[in-house]
């Protein structure tokens, strides 16, 4: 199968890309620095892609089709985290997060969903968050972006229920990635979590879904580390 992974240069996206390649899939690994993050290897096409740029989604789809002629899997994984109290949160960064996680990802999902419906085959995996199912103080903007992804996923799942196109939302708790690299205090200390999830844990769960029989639909997968109370 042919897959497109966004946010593929690190963290969960990188783990998904590696797992797909191990399975023998062909992968378009999209990210702002994808060409610097991957060495040349068979069945891998790194594509430098900033989803906030005008036309980025259309170019990504066209590049995928030009090289592979088809695509079966889409992994919507690009994202950032902006959170904090009212007094200090950077509203410009919040709006940029919204443009990436909502506007750009919506455009990405609809573009590939349209193609998948036309050929009656495909699977879209959307990396949301446990904060796409509930929220907490200081995280309203980030949770709101994930709630939007969850709503779109649920609507598309119902719209496509009688087709061979599947939609799955991945809802991780705290994962050890570079998204928290600039934080003064890592959230694992704030949440009293001794061992966070690893990106490979998320990739393994996705592979489990891919290996289900075609008549089995998995709309949501939530993964939490031990001790994550939410």
From TrEMBL:
Keywords: Oxidoreductase. CDD domains: SDR_c (cd05233). It holds the Pfam family adh_short. GO terms for molecular function: oxidoreductase activity. One of its GO terms (cellular component) is cytosol. Belongs to the short-chain dehydrogenases/reductases (SDR) family. This is Short-chain dehydrogenase. It comes from Photobacterium gaetbulicola. The lineage of its organism: Bacteria, Pseudomonadati, Pseudomonadota, Gammaproteobacteria, Vibrionales.
